[in-house]
Amino acid sequence: MKADYSIQCFTAQHKTYWPFAVMFSVYPVGFPLMILLLIYKNRQSQRNEELSFGLKVFFENCKDKFWFWEVTEMYRKLILISLIFLFGSEGVSRIGLTLLVVSVFGVAYTFFRPIKGRFEDLLQTFVLWVIFFDVCLGAMYSTSDVTEDNDSLIVNILFVILNSSVLLVALGKGIAHLSFVYKKVSSCVIHCIKLIQRGFAYIKRKSASCFQTVFGPRSEPFDLQRHLLIQEFT
């Protein structure tokens, strides 16, 4: 209640909404735990194949021994969001704890590298360190008096460059993938056209051969008398 200290707590109105507050507070903490237990029990289950298939979205991109890493990411985001509500958006404690959390998760991810795909792994590492530098810039911006317009402009430009670089990397990968798919599809189309042309040429040759066989010139019957006359004069 930092916004208005005149509001009294534990009144009848607060007691009415207290169960809803507890429910909404338990859900962000309990849902990742529930997912963790379900993945642990059913990720290689043969009985509940449908459930195991549905849970793959939480661990299929991770290495086998890091099947739990997506839950770790959930708690990382939950901690970063909760620090704002617990310590305020501009508190020094919040900035210090945010730097600590971001640093710990960034170092842990860089050390373990839990994601399978090379590009996804590099992108996630890059994103985590971009978040770290964002927090550092935010700490500098919050704790110091940025009165000069030039200083404020430089900080804002750095924010834009850091965050847009992630988007540019993802877009570059997407464009490269589309180019690869286009080359594959175009080569397949050209190959199909060549196969169709060969098929038509084969059909044309076979048709000409059959036509020649059926309607072509036939050999004349053997004339014995003509043959004897030729032999006599020769």
TrEMBL record:
The chain crosses the membrane at residues 20-40, 95-115, 122-141, 153-176. This is ATP synthase F0 subunit 6. It comes from the Eukaryota. Keywords: Membrane, Transmembrane, Transmembrane helix.
